[in-house]
Specification:
Collagenase (Catalytic Domain), alpha/beta, single chain, two-stranded antiparallel sheet
Length: 174
């Protein structure tokens, strides 16, 4: 992935990947795109502390169960975000420059991302990046479900961040 308009110069970022099952398709590229989408979002939001994010890659059944357990919605979705802090708490959580802020967890359904990419007409990796940006904004305190104004604000941020990124094709060529 390359960047059109910025060079990410942020403090240390730790990403812990896990998978509910084996996903061999695009494994390296998926992780690369997720990593750079997280970096781009933190950079765009001027997040200036060391950060930690957990990302779980999963299938439809797994995300459906999580969605039911935590949101009481019996449906498979594309991505779920579990922030550690509210927007107001994040500044206090930053502490000194050597501390790491655990932002939270992202659960991403790769099959749903692939379906949506086909429906919308862009690449699978573009959709993975979009869902990651969307989710990281939630970890930073954005919540489009609060009001139409908050939804507009989050959508504008997503669009601006996505405009910075150029995606590799399915074979990894940029």
């Amino acid at each position: 992935m390359i960047y059109k308009h910025y060079t990410p110069d942020i403090p240390q970022l730790k990403i812990y990947f896990s998978a509910e099952k084996e996903f061999s398709k695009h494994n390296y590229l998926v992780k690369k795109v997720i990593r750079e989408a997280i970096r781009a979002t933190l950079f765009s939001e001027k997040f200036d502390a060391n950060a930690e994010v957990s990302v779980t890659l999963c299938g439809a059944d797994y995300i459906r169960a999580i969605n039911m357990q935590y949101r009481e919605k019996d449906t498979a979705t594309d991505v779920l975000s579990f922030p550690m802090y509210t927007k107001e708490e994040i500044e206090a959580a930053k502490g000194d420059e050597d501390e790491t802020v655990e932002l939270g967890d992202i659960v991403l359904s790769l099959p749903r991302a692939e379906e949506q990419a086909k429906e919308i007409g862009h690449s699978f990796l573009h959709e993975v990046a979009f869902l990651t940006v969307h989710s990281v904004l939630h970890l930073l305190g954005y919540d489009h479900e609060l009001s139409p104004e908050e939804e507009e604000k989050q959508c504008q941020r997503q669009k601006a961040i996505m405009e910075w990124l150029v995606f590799p094709d399915e074979e990894g060529q940029e």
